From TrEMBL:
Binding site for ATP: G27, V28, S29, D33, I57, G129, D134
Residue span, tRNA(Ile)-lysidine/2-thiocytidine synthase N-terminal domain: 23-189
UniProt-recorded name of the protein: tRNA(Ile)-lysidine/2-thiocytidine synthase N-terminal domain-containing protein
Keyword set, alphabetical order: ATP-binding, Nucleotide-binding, Transferase
UniProt-recorded Gene Ontology molecular function terms: ATP binding; transferase activity
Length: 239
């Protein structure tokens, strides 16, 4: 088993993300993260005993036919069931001409469409392509902008456990996924969102890069800190 595949497999086992008999959907956005996730976990189906379905939500009315062809071929070659649901989420948000919260609303609406399709298919576990860097950035974003000490988890339960979110790439660095997607020629697609460089996440990512130039261990230290909470030295109100 290649190094990255082993890392992802170990993450799945460590956090009990996938169990025998599970029906797992992967939310495929078209980016390197979700496409790499699909490629990395599909070989584990037999060993772990789960079924796998890729769900892609188109974001514009004029969906990219060439990309859809590539996605269909990619899934066919790996014997992965592919479900495509057409929406015009980005077109709708463009018409609203919002100046903020566009990324949040886009993600919220896309996730809602995936949940509805999962319910229709009888699938209750959704694998997302969030990686280690995403978790670190989210941790800082919540501190900076929401006054909360929290981040995304490797496993989360929604709607009283009816939907389970899992993140098999939780311990994987983004640069490893970039190398993997390029080396394996993973097809990727960008819907061309004009808000991608204006998001809070983008600014936090740039902030981290600045810190990393001075000390390359900063991201790893933040990730460890997320799992090394010392409540004795935090003014936490237990009442």
């Amino acid at each position: 088993m290649a190094r990255l595949s082993k890392q992802v497999f170990n993450c799945i086992k460590k956090y009990s993300l996938i169990e025998k008999g599970d029906k797992v959907a992967v939310g495929v956005s078209g980016g390197k993260d979700s496409m790499s996730l699909l490629s990395l976990i599909h070989p584990f189906r037999e060993k772990l005993g789960f079924s796998l379905t890729a769900i892609h939500i188109t974001l514009r009315e004029e969906h990219p036919s060439e990309w859809i062809k590539e996605l269909k071929l990619f899934c066919k070659n790996k014997e992965i069931e592919l479900i495509i649901k057409k929406t015009n989420i980005l077109d709708y948000l463009d018409r609203l001409k919002l100046k903020k919260d566009v990324c949040f609303l886009c993600a919220h609406n896309r996730r809602k469409e995936i949940f509805l399709k999962m319910q229709e298919l009888g699938i209750d576990k959704l694998a997302l392509g969030h990686h280690k860097d995403d978790a670190i950035e989210t941790f800082l974003m919540n501190i900076f902008y929401s006054s909360q000490t929290c981040t995304m988890m490797p496993k989360q339960y929604l709607f009283k456990g009816k939907i389970k979110l899992i993140r098999p790439l939780y311990t994987t660095k983004e640069k490893s996924l970039i190398s993997y997607s390029e080396r394996h020629k993973i097809p990727v697609f960008d819907y061309g969102c004009s808000n991608s460089c204006e998001s809070k996440r983008f600014h936090v990512k740039q902030f981290l890069k600045t810190l990393e130039k001075d000390n390359r261990r900063v991201p790893a230290n933040i990730f460890r800190a997320m799992h090394n909470i010392n409540l004795e030295y935090l003014p936490y109100d237990f009442d």
